[in-house]
Write a structure and sequence with these properties.
- The chain has two domains: 163 residues, 3-Layer(aba) Sandwich (Rossmann fold); 274 residues, 2-Layer Sandwich (Dihydrodipicolinate Reductase, domain 2).
- The protein contains 16 helices and 15 strands.
- Strands 13-12-11-7-10-9-8-14-15 form a nine-stranded mixed sheet, covered by helices on one side. Strands 3-2-1-4-5-6 form a six-stranded parallel sheet, sandwiched between helices.
Length: 474
């Protein structure tokens, strides 16, 4: 691995690359590190999220990507045309990449969900720092395994792809909740609209020829074998299918659930129940409501977290007290309600007796002590006056702050804010929602023994066994 790179080197490099950082370092320091002083990255899974977000964000802080990997040659070839990737070495098999690219410092993973944990495991065991897109895992058992794996490699920096937690809005909202300003918090409501993925259906009977360049058997990985179909699974629509993803609750649990989970110290839920339309299929329902119950802890009473998915599936009017957007998160207390947005990047508070939400610059909020580190305002220098109003940086800067924080951790200068040890536990909450949707029965959850009480048919979903007959690449 490359030698550690100092914080000031990365800050200077980011400033030179146009991130918007102030020139706060001594003038004698070079404008940026030389090519052999930068960290070396490899990217695995070259779909839209990798090319549209992860790769550009690394480019903004002047890091070098030396290798890419994908089981679809079309995606590899397309990626090589992108800025920052034209000289990257290409691989079909992530294991070959990890074997040959011994100087790589860190790996970014943007594959379908069912491949996340196997690749995370291989990368961590190879001594690489890892950034993995959400959800981190594809089952409860994988969440537990990944958490254990991450804690057993304490010198490697991991980061979950839930960008909102790196913003000023998230960290201020965290402090508001923990301050007690909202009173006794009893409910959290998170909602999201429907998607264009397959929903409420089973797989089609027909099959299509596998496109040239796509290793379909390798793409399937541990999932049960099935014929290839055009525009149903790959690219981009796999998330609706339970064999590869977990629909909107798996996709957004690490965004919408994380503020409440962390600030309220929720631990595992004790009961989960799901209702909806078009349930009981191989794909996520068209509409659903999933209700989690969390036990009291310390001075906090019990909490319900309710997730709504599908068109017009939003909290009832007596909770919202007015029109709300197509996505959101409300943390409801006896003395006030906090509106955090689905990515938990906002901090807007409506105190008891008030009609409207106000930003974090209102006096009651402004006097709350800051306890969390700031990447946006302290490192990336987002205007603190705008942050105090609950305004957040433009989306690219929100993303960049999350990536930048992880790169600092990779350089040995800081700890990431959303490591796998935390991300895996939030992901487990999402996976328990998937479990309730798939079984269509209330789940009484025994977290210690990883069991759905009195529901043995849930075991195969909690800890699915891989279909090994086609797991190896062709």
């Amino acid at each position: 691995m490359s030698k550690n790179i100092s914080r000031r080197r990365l800050l200077k490099s980011a400033a030179a690359a146009g991130v918007g950082l102030p020139m706060i370092l001594p003038s004698g320091i070079l404008a940026g590190p030389s090519s052999n002083e930068r960290l070396k990255f490899a990217c695995i899974g070259m779909g839209g999220q990798m090319r549209g977000y992860l790769v550009p964000e690394l480019g903004k802080i002047d890091q070098q990507i030396v290798a890419i990997c994908d089981v679809d040659k079309r995606q590899r070839d397309s990626a090589l045309k992108a800025p920052g990737l034209t000289e990257a070495r290409t691989y079909h098999d992530y294991r070959e990449l990890l074997d040959k690219e011994t100087e790589v410092d860190a790996v970014l993973i943007g594959t379908p969900d069912h491949w996340h944990v196997p690749i995370c495991q291989a990368a961590l065991e190879a001594g690489k720092h890892v950034y993995c897109e959400k959800p981190l895992a594809h089952s409860v058992a994988e969440c537990r395994a990944l958490e254990k794996l991450a804690t057993s490699h304490p010198k490697l920096a991991t980061q979950t792809g839930n960008q909102g937690c790196s913003t000023e809005g998230f960290r201020r909202s965290f402090e508001v909740i923990q301050s007690g300003l909202l009173g006794d918090i009893t409910e959290v409501h998170v909602w999201h609209p429907g998607h264009s993925w397959p929903n409420g259906v089973d797989r089609p009977a027909k099959s299509d020829p596998v496109p040239e360049g796509l290793d379909w058997r390798f793409w399937l990985g541990s999932a049960p074998e099935r014929p290839y179909n055009n525009d149903i699974y790959h690219p981009g629509k796999w998330r609706g299918w339970y064999d590869f993803g977990g629909g909107s609750i798996a996709d957004f649990c690490c965004h919408g659930f994380q503020l409440a989970y962390r600030a309220l110290e929720l631990d595992a839920p004790t009961r989960i129940e799901a209702t909806g339309e078009d349930m009981g299929h191989e794909s996520f329902p068209t509409r659903c409501t999933v209700t989690y119950e969390f036990a009291a802890k310390g001075k906090r009473g019990p909490v319900k977290l309710i997730f709504y998915s599908g068109d017009k599936h939003v909290p009832p009017d007596d909770i919202t007290r007015g029109p709300v957007g197509s996505t959101g998160c409300l943390v409801v207390g006896s003395e006030g309600t906090l509106s955090a947005g689905l990515w938990n990047t906002d901090c807007n508070v409506r105190l008891k007796g008030a009609n409207d939400f106000q930003g974090a610059n209102q006096p009651e909020v402004a006097r709350i002590a800051k306890t969390q580190p700031r990447i946006d305002t302290e490192i990336l220098k987002w205007d603190p006056k705008l942050a105090a109003k609950g305004e957040r940086p433009r989306w690219s800067r929100v993303n960049n702050s999350h990536m930048f924080e992880w790169v600092l951790a990779c350089a040995g200068d800081a700890k990431s804010y959303s490591p796998f040890e935390i991300g895996a536990r939030i992901t487990e909450v999402g996976m328990l929602g998937v479990l309730a949707l798939r079984t269509q029965k209330p789940i009484l959850w025994d977290a210690e023994n990883r069991k759905a009480v009195g529901l043995p048919e849930a075991d195969a979903i909690i800890d699915p066994k891989p279909s090994t007959d086609h797991f190896l690449p062709s």
